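Input set for joint prediction.
Command: fold jointly, output tokens.
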Amino acid sequence: MTEEAKLNRDVAVIGVGQTKFGEHWSQSMREMAVEAGIKAVEDAGISGHDIQMVVGGNMSGGLFTGQEHSSAMLADYLGLNPIPAIRTEAACSSGALAMRVGILAIASGMYDFVAVGGVEKMTDIYGPQATTALSGAMDYETEAYFGATFPGIYALIAQRHMYQYKTTREQLAMVAVKNHDNGFLNPVAQYQKRITVGEVLSSPLVADPLRLLDCSPITDGAATVILAPADVARKYTDAPVYVKATAQASDTLSLFSRRDITTLDATVEAARRAYKQAGLAPKDINLAEVHDCFTIAEICAYEDLGFAKKGEGGKLIQSGQTMLGGKIPINTSGGLKSKGHPVGATGIAQIIEIVKQLRGDAGKRQVNGANTGMTHNVGGSGATAVVHILSRDR
Amino acid sequence: MTEEAKLNRDVAVIGVGQTKFGEHWSQSMREMAVEAGIKAVEDAGISGHDIQMVVGGNMSGGLFTGQEHSSAMLADYLGLNPIPAIRTEAACSSGALAMRVGILAIASGMYDFVAVGGVEKMTDIYGPQATTALSGAMDYETEAYFGATFPGIYALIAQRHMYQYKTTREQLAMVAVKNHDNGFLNPVAQYQKRITVGEVLSSPLVADPLRLLDCSPITDGAATVILAPADVARKYTDAPVYVKATAQASDTLSLFSRRDITTLDATVEAARRAYKQAGLAPKDINLAEVHDCFTIAEICAYEDLGFAKKGEGGKLIQSGQTMLGGKIPINTSGGLKSKGHPVGATGIAQIIEIVKQLRGDAGKRQVNGANTGMTHNVGGSGATAVVHILSRDR
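tokens >
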């Protein structure tokens, strides 16, 4: 396998904007995308006329709303015609892929200003249909068709992790408690509400051992960032945030094909590539937004991203070091669990949280001295993983 | 609007492969994608280990088969893990967008060898469901929801074109006849069968004035090309085909919002950008694959791409100049009409036909002295248009 090379141009984030995450009965997919897009353009202090391309992550507009071709919808309703518009999709990592394509487009030399967004409207269909739509992220022929659901898939991972590494039911619950503590401080989070370990443990069982409060919710939302060449970023903002790494890896679509279901090899490989691109190690990361679609996923992410040794993710959450004020605060936004998980928008919302933290603009959730942050966005049960490293340092 | 700039690196096509287009009851989406991918890798004379990224166009795996996340599926079943895999979507132009992202990725400097594919499995659901899935390409809230179908949308365009420019019913039929004449010579075409103007005119009425034989079919199929930096292309093939332009533009998602429904402004703008990038004019193009989802669409494309004056597309088909042996042969592959239209694969199949023609490898369909060709891929009723120019000249 040939290693990837350096980008021809460095890229910076110069603007961010998002809707509140939640159940938006009065807003359609296009209205949310427009709200996030306008906020990002205003934040960047540019005009819509400066934007040369739109890239939009959207997992399943077709199954959730009937609407495919959402990239053209974005360009149209944002008043950006005739610029090119591209939709990217890799299940719940669709947003991070939009980020990657935006970065590649600027590095290619062809485009300077690219609006990169993500959107998902999930609440227009009823719950079981949403579960069916989401199952398009796993191997439909060999998993979903035979009745597998995502809580079931991640429950298998949790069972194995608990068996092999003595990870406890309480440690899983602590992930949810921490993320709700953070989401409580985030005005755009779906659930601004604290919960206790006892509440997690007594919430309804979904797929043993995972309970309702171990699972990220069904969410509507949109998020947008404006990318520009690093060279010009300071013209537009006093606090540009530079992209130090954009890395992605793939693994088997089905969980049962993996060599070890407690390790997301795609995350390990994407992280390896990202650290190499940035010339950094896990100890250099001040905070991270990781893909906590279920509580067990955050524990695996600690290990796969190098923040804990293999099997010691449960100990890391228990140590308190991933809380605000800890050594490596994780999911200061509230994560997918508490901020919400509009699947196509999540990858961009993660970028936005890191940008706000690096700008010192995260309010009560601010991580003191945050200089370098990471995002980790996963598609399916780990067939796709995307890792970005962002920094105040050029 | 800021104009796009030159790519940092030139790109070439070094390998192509596709399945036969048709109704493949014995092949799933993944099996078709694997067949096309392997053929392309073999044609390029490289190993799968050389490939650093996969980009896959797929319009609606979710609605057609339940399977989203098809990019990871491609990487997995092609044995290419852990390289990154990105799905692109813009309705029927999803394939051409994959081509664009592959080109941008190489120009970015990060990747050298990128496999760019397209796939669609459309026949696993019954006809009316396929029509519903396809309607996700138009404005779902303001068109599809109120009963619009694509034959209906293009029928409106045809009615207006016939009223305004005296385009005749027979001229529409001639597009289908020409494309079936070409498809008759193409071993991978869905319909290798000649038809007559009389047969078109007596085929069942679908949406007045469009009849069954004015419409492209429901098709299964996959197509893949291998891209590499232009600098190294000659190491892999004696007949590299260079990408001279990759251009894309957007227009309103809904037909009724257009200033003139007989002109696809996105095509006009994408063509303007493509000609500018390549430093070429319509007279320099030796042949083109254009988006003939309905016969009227090919007539509009003649005008919007600059091969005929506005309103004179009907005269151009009647003149015979777009037939094999004419001044500007169009859709030598058989086009969407006769070769078939697996929506996510079509944009890549168009590239493949041009590559084969420029290599002198198009058998009985060969255009003598073909040096420079164009592809034109449309999403929806023209909300997205993508134009590529390929040439034997670096």
